[in-house]
Every structure is written in C-alpha cells, then in structure tokens.
Amino acid sequence: MSASLLRLRADDPVEALTEALARDGALIVEGLLGPEPLARFEADLAPALAAASPERDYLNPAVEWFMGKRTRTLTGIAAKSPTFASDILCHPTLLAVCDAILGPSCARYQLNVAQVLDRGPGAEDQMLHRDELVWIHMPRPHPELQVASVIALVDFTADNGATRVVPGSHRWPLERQPEAADVVAAEMPAGSAVVYVGSTLHGGGANTTQDTWRRGMHLSYVLGWLRTEENHYLETPPDVARALPRQAQELLGYAVHDAVADAGGYLGAVDLRDPVELLADGSLG
Ligand SMILES: [Fe+2]
Q1: In this predicted model, what pLDDT tens digit does every residue of 179-197 receive, in sequence order?
Q2: I want to staple 6 with a disulfide (CB 3.0 to 4.6 A). Which of 27, 51, 152, 183 is the partner?
C-alpha cells in the first residue's frame, strides 16, 4: 500500500494536529490561509518577486545545488510583507502546534526560516532531506527541534512540484532510504500547508508543467536556544522590526530566551536587557 498524508483543517482541535504530527511526522492542514490574506500576501510580494531571478548568488555551491535551478527565492519576508507578520508568522494554528511540540523543550521558540520558493517549469526533484540536519552536531536522539511547513500559495499538484514527503520517516534511522511507495506528493489547494517535524524526510517535487510556477512558502520554527538558519536581526533590522506586532518581534528573535525560572540562564540580551523591551521604549535601533 502506498503511503498517504492525513488531512485535517486549520480549525480542528490542536490535539488532533499534534497527534498526527507525532505519529506520522507530517500532515496536511487545509484552510490555513483564506483567499483574502493570500491575495494580500501575493500583492506584498509582487515587487520583490518581479525582481527575483533563478540566476542568483548563493553562499556556496552546495546550497546552490540544494535550492535547484529554475527557482526564485525570497528571504527576509518579515521586512517585505506586513501580511507575513500579521497573518502567517503569528498564525494561531501554527503557534498552537509549536506550543505543543516545541514548548516543553524551550522557554520560547522562534522563527527559523521563512522563504518563498517559486519553482518554475523544469525545476527538478530536490534531494529528500531532513531540515533539522542543519543542526548536525545535536546528538541523537533528541527532542523535536523544529516544526516546519510548506504553505501552498498556488494549488500544489504532483505535476507542478508539490512537496514530496515520507510519512513515518521521522522515526527512521538516518541511513534508511525510502522506496518510491513511501513518498507522497502533498497535493493541496492554495492556502493549505503541509506541516512536518524537522526529522521528517521531504523535498521539493519536479515541476513538469510547461508554464505553471509552483509558489510556496517554507516556514519553520525552532527551539529558542538554537541558532536560526536565517539571520533575522540583519534581514529585519530594528528600524523595520519596530513597526511589527510585538509577537512577531519576539518570534524574530528580538525577545530574550529566559530560562531563569527553570534554573537556567538567558540568551540574546542587549546591554543586559530584553531587546524587545528596548524596541518598545525606542532605545534600540
Ligand atoms: Fe526542507
């Protein structure tokens, strides 16, 4: 029997979502973004997307190979889109899942990466991978480090490169290779998301269409005491972050990770104070 992904709704009880994530390592959450915020997000991104090209510089050839040809990528989304901060980064469903999965292992979690990935015709299958291996030095086993997602900004189909996922692979030894029947294409309408944990194998699919760009947003959250993949302080500097909702500032890493109540210490202070408070009183940036 071929593998499959459970489909739930964004307003289903969070326990049902987290149960599926714990059991399968991934699920499809339908109706995460309605047509109105989707259209607003699209409008926010339009200028940057128009200026983006698959021909761009990456930090090294490995990253270039990993991202693949025929892909337009936007990063630093919090600084490009007010809709991102208000409707996506702080989405109650995503944060409720993070509360349940990441909450027990940190004083607060934070945004890890937010990238719009616009995969054009001719884009090839991306290597199946585990997002959490960016923290390769973390001994295994370990608690869940990361809650990740790909939000469909257009309808995702197997032909246009829907994210491919291997349900159950979050429990596999690293060396186990998936068979073709283990891999599911996360086909879903725009506004839905495939949500997965950092240990679940997945990758972008090949876009075999002639003229359809598969636009999605990779959005992930990580324990607040790990270094993030994107450097949000530089991509969304204080003079930009100041205008964002406080919860967005906190998720971008402007809040200290304060584990003093757990007999630990704190991380991320500025002049021995909480930068999110310094943003609020105007003394930062
Ligand atoms: Fe990934």
Answers
A1: 999 999 999 999 999 999 9
A2: 27
